[in-house]
């Protein structure tokens, strides 16, 4: 059901466009290029599976998790290896 002068589906089109813009922005912020072999934070080797799944990876999963939780206000406890 359209409201006012908006054609049917206009609201959904606007939602879809907003989601597409957000996805495009998120993708543009991902690292690109070859991945590091060793983590820039702790120096441990970044597993091949992570390097292949996440081109441009600069940190291991543990250190990236620390950065992510710290950025979002989560726990800042870093696990030890």
Commentary on this structure:
The chain has 81 residues and is mainly α. The chain has one domain (11-71). It contains three helices and no strands. The protein has helices at residues 10-28, 48-53, 61-71. The longest helix has 19 residues, at 10-28. It is elongated and about 60 Å long. The N and C termini lie far apart (57 Å). The mean pLDDT is 85.
Quaternary organization: single chain
State the secondary-structure class: mainly alpha
Q: How confident is the prediction overall: mean pLDDT?
A: 85
Helices, by number, come to 3
What's the topology here?
Elements: H1 10-28, H2 48-53, H3 61-71
Short précis:
This protein has 81 residues and is mainly alpha-helical. The protein contains 3 helices and no strands.
Features:
81 residues, elongated
């Amino acid at each position: 059901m359209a409201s006012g002068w908006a054609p049917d589906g206009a609201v959904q089109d606007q939602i879809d466009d907003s989601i597409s813009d957000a996805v495009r922005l998120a993708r543009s912020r991902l690292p690109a290029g070859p991945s590091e072999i060793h983590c820039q934070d702790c120096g441990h080797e970044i597993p091949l599976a992570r390097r292949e799944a996440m081109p441009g990876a600069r940190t291991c999963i543990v250190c990236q998790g620390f950065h992510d939780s710290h950025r979002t206000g989560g726990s800042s406890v870093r696990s030890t290896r």
